[in-house]
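Quick note —
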Amino acid sequence: MKIYTKTGDQGKTSLYGGTRVKKSNLRIDAYGTVDELNSYIGLVKDQLEDKIVIEDLLRIQNKLFALGAMLATPLDKEKLKDGSDRLKIEKIEETEIQFLESRMDTMNERLAPMTHFILPGGHTVVSFCHIARCVCRRAERITVELADTEEINAYVLIYLNRLSDYLFVLARKLTKDYKVTEIPWKG
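Predicted structure written out below.
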């Protein structure tokens, strides 16, 4: 199978379901930013030795792929003519949000309470984690804007919001794991 199709050479692409849109479409921007986020999470994961966190990040990467597919499929195109799901994937649901919350609770139990805002940095992997968090927030903002004009699955926004929180807590955990000092904001 060839990677290049030449169908996007004029600045348009197809959503899942066949609708052609400009590559600058908000829906494309949303799932493209989720793809960027997924790449940064891969970068974080590749720096780690903690098998549990690696497994968690791999799970998150797989869920982000599903989330991207959900964003690439307008709700009115989710069902085929026979009524079956066009997307034959496990969609983002409440269980994935609970997973992130549970992992944050576990990490937070081992961290000192926050007493100040924290500047990103201290260790390369911590900085990568903060970059992933920022990209996640951007994906969330774009998806919120998309939701102003098109219906999207509500769990998509909740998941992105919770994932950015998870990445912040993970950055704090990694700061502790690598024995570096959190850098307080001096405002």
